[in-house]
Design a protein that fits this description.
Largest sheet: none
InterPro entries: CstA, CstA_N
Shape: globular
Keywords: Cell membrane, Membrane, Transmembrane, Transmembrane helix
Transmembrane segments: 6-23, 58-76, 82-104, 125-144, 164-181, 193-215, 235-257, 277-301, 321-345, 369-387, 393-412, 424-443, 455-472
Protein name: Carbon starvation protein A
Order of helices and strands: HHHHHHHHHHHHHHHHHH
Family: Belongs to the peptide transporter carbon starvation (CstA) (TC 2.A.114) family.
Number of helices: 18
Length: 485
């Protein structure tokens, strides 16, 4: 219990102390007109108040990642808590804040445009393709994961067969229809209206799990503590902590997907002083969600048991069992609904961000419904085809693409800070750390080059140093070069 309480307190304190420094380093201008007013169009550039923007941002970034990822990360034991806390405070929240605020200073531009401006036009094309692939994978993953959760929940009440392919297809089609509407309609119509309701469900369900963890500790289960003896890799298959843990737990610590979401909210923020709460604060909230689910998974199931349960399907099995065991059937179902809300909101925002990213790249205005459908319909056709792929394969590629995007966003943020003569180490250090993990992962994993891990460590170190030196040498030449819009 002590580890859990201290971890949550560290996350909260991190928001007030380090979050304040990050904001000061950016140098906000409360008197500057934001894109929500300067470019107001009634569709994507719409002023919305601070609480609404905050809950939309949280639900956009918190898919199944801060639930499924920490459940999988629980296989490593309490060492996973270190990455959640430190990663969230010094990497993830910093990443979300800077990319959101830099976008706000650039007319709500998405990551490809920002990469093109600050790193080079060639990078703009590469990042656009990369972002499009990531958002498409996110959309597909966040169709399949909530669909399976819904089917699992309905089967508990004997409403559907949990193995029925037909039932799963119907659920998938319903989710796709909702995603289509939320992708093409103005942001304040569906997303702005329904997200507060979804947010209420999510907050209540997550809070219930957290309270139950503390209330029932030592009676029906026991929270795991981080000690010198438990500071080791407890994964049943001895999967390496470096680099796999940093890809297993992404949302809840550091996630590149957030760099595709923050620009949407940078188009609806009313004042720059709201940025720390909306961008940095909501990432801290996601870290708390991750801590709750990682702690619950470790408390209820030993490593091998947890591993065998996950092998039965996806981490949705653990979500179902944790919720029912800890809260009973009624409150447990509410908790499951709270988890279902997360991927659905992130899925629809992924498709919306993909539409806007492509539109920005090809310079196609999005005021007319026809122009929206020209981009949206082909996206949904491709997404439906991808739902036929194996979930585990999709999840693996999503994880790597996700963290590679985080590295790009951190280096874009670093370049911005360098050219504006700010402390760039706040983004460069986590960027270098994650770049090393990116290289190691793609070199050593079967989905990459399948090189022995020890050799991959060495090659990755050389590549990381070379990339960083090249980036820095070219960045300092541009000091004072760029003007904010």
């Amino acid at each position: 219990m002590i580890t859990f309480i201290i971890s949550v307190l560290c996350l909260i304190i991190g928001y007030f102390i380090y979050g304040s420094y990050v904001e000061k380093n950016f140098a906000i201008n409360p008197d500057k007109k934001t894109p929500a007013y300067a470019m107001q169009d009634g569709s994507d550039y719409v002023p919305m108040n601070k609480p609404k923007n905050a809950i939309i941002q949280l639900l956009n970034i918190a898919g199944t990642g801060p639930v499924f990822g920490p459940i999988l990360g629980a296989l490593y034991g309490p060492v996973a808590f270190i990455w959640i806390v430190l990663g969230c405070i010094f990497a993830g929240a910093v990443h979300d804040y800077y990319i959101g605020m830099i976008s706000l200073r650039n007319k709500g531009a998405f990551l490809p445009t920002l990469a093109g401006k600050y790193i080079g036009n060639g990078m703009r094309h590469a990042v656009n393709a990369f972002s499009a692939i990531l958002l498409l994978l996110v959309g597909v993953v966040f169709v399949l994961s909530p669909a399976k959760l819904i089917q699992q929940t309905l089967s508990t009440y004997s409403l559907v067969d949990k193995t029925s392919a037909t039932a799963l297809l119907i659920i998938i089609c319903c989710i796709f229809f909702y995603y289509l509407l939320s992708t093409i309609l103005p942001i304040d119509k569906i997303i702005g209206w329904i997200y507060p309701i979804f947010g209420f469900i999510m907050v209540i369900s997550t809070f219930s799990i957290g309270v139950s963890l503390l209330y029932n500790n030592n009676s029906t289960y026991q929270l795991k503590e981080l000690t010198f003896s438990s500071l080791t890799n407890m994964h049943p298959n001895a999967v390496s902590i470096f680099p796999v843990l940093f890809f297993t737990i992404s949302c809840g610590a550091l996630s590149g997907f957030h760099a595709t979401q923050s620009p949407m909210i940078s188009r609806t923020i009313q004042n720059e002083k709201q940025g720390r709460f909306i961008f940095y604060g909501m990432m801290i909230a996601e870290g708390v969600i991750a801590m709750i689910w990682a702690s619950a998974a470790m408390a209820l199931f030993e490593g091998q048991t947890l591993y065998e349960l996950i092998k039965q399907g996806t981490p949705s099995v653990i979500v179902d069992k944790v919720s029912i065991l800890m809260l009973g059937s009624t409150l447990g179902t509410l908790a499951i609904l709270g988890v279902i809300v997360l991927p659905i909101t992130s899925g629809n925002s992924a498709f919306r961000a993909l539409r806007l990213t492509i539109a920005e790249y090809i310079k196609l205005p999005q005021r007319k419904m026809f122009h929206k459908l020209v981009i949206t319909l082909p996206i949904f056709v491709i997404a439906y085809i991808l739902t036929k792929m194996d979930f585990e394969i999709l999840w693996r590629y999503f994880n790597w693409a996700n963290q590679a995007t985080a590295v790009i966003a951190l280096f874009v943020s670093t370049k911005y800070l360098i050219v504006n003569k700010k402390n760039y180490l706040v983004t460069l250090i986590p960027g270098i750390f994650m770049l090393y993990q990116i290289y190691t992962y793609i070199l050593s994993e079967k989905i990459g080059f399948n090189i022995p891990l020890n050799i991959s460590y060495i090659i990755a170190a050389v590549l990381t140093v070379g990339t960083t030196v090249y980036f820095y040498k070219h960045s300092i030449k541009d000091i004072g070069k760029f003007k904010e819009d």
